[in-house]
């Protein structure tokens, strides 16, 4: 099945979906390498923490007492690798149970770190104590009120002449729509992957952006973006008239997959990277890595100020 799923044609996805529907597809029982490494780190943890760390892995993998959405094994391994030195340092100073960890312990562990390293460790520690609190292994969550002040660099705006020139060179309606959504309407790759067809209101020119853990965001589309969105829907229905995938952006693989997966990030960023552009996964706008590239003749495209949300 693994080899079949990697085939370039679409027969592999269709066969896998058929086997799943008729109940002939058994789950792969082989141990994941990243999960095995995470378990080894848990086995090497200080003995008073070992059982709690293994329970944390169970929560992250969706196998604890209460069902939860599982994280990727690579993410679980990264959390264990990051927190392992912190757990050893706490044990060395006399902490013999995670119930004794206080907010001061966590802040002292974060104090020598800066930037992304501190943010990553704080995220892992919050996950650890949140999981233990949920499993009723600790009475309170010491990481709940720990906060970090981090500077988030703003992406470089794309000049208007560069914007027009790139639009001339990008082929494919979906690629042009993705570029405009990123460069003009500040939608990240994750935002675009989560867009549903029902989120697009063509009559009012509005687009609903769903962001996990945050309130929904409404984007007011300009005339050019609305035309691109309509053109993409026409092309989508022409190429895959029987597709039931609810997401707005699809590829030849995801359109025919009965599991209704989201489009992969590479499908959005690949074409833009060829033009010397990048769109961050969780950022807001597209930025240029070739600021001196000459602009090509412009198209009938309104400026970014023409489609801001009304006051």
Helix content: 40-55%
Strand order of the largest sheet: 1-2-3
Backbone structural class: mainly alpha
DSSP helical segment count: 12
In CATH terms, what is the architecture of the largest domain?
A: Orthogonal Bundle
The CATH topology assignment of the largest domain is hpI Integrase, Chain A
CATH superfamily of the largest domain: Intergrase catalytic core
Order of helical and strand elements: HHHHHHHHHHEEEHHEE
Strand proportion, as a percent range, falls in: 5-15%
The CA-CA distance between the termini, in Å, is 54 Å
Contiguous runs where pLDDT drops below 50 for at least 5 residues: 281-311
- Please tell me what the overall shape is: globular
> Mean of residue pLDDT?
80
Q: Could you name the CATH class of the largest domain?
A: Mainly Alpha
Q: How many β-strand stretches?
A: 5
Largest sheet: 3 strands, antiparallel
Rg over CA atoms, rounded to whole Å, is 24 Å
| Count of folded domains | 3
Task: Describe the protein in words.
Helix content is 45%, strand content 5%. With 311 residues, it is mainly alpha-helical. It folds into three domains: 1-28, no CATH class; 31-134; 160-307, Intergrase catalytic core (hpI Integrase, Chain A). Strand 4 (277-279) and strand 5 (286-288) form a beta hairpin. The longest helix is centred in the first third of the chain and has 20 residues, at 73-92. It is globular, with a radius of gyration of 24 Å.
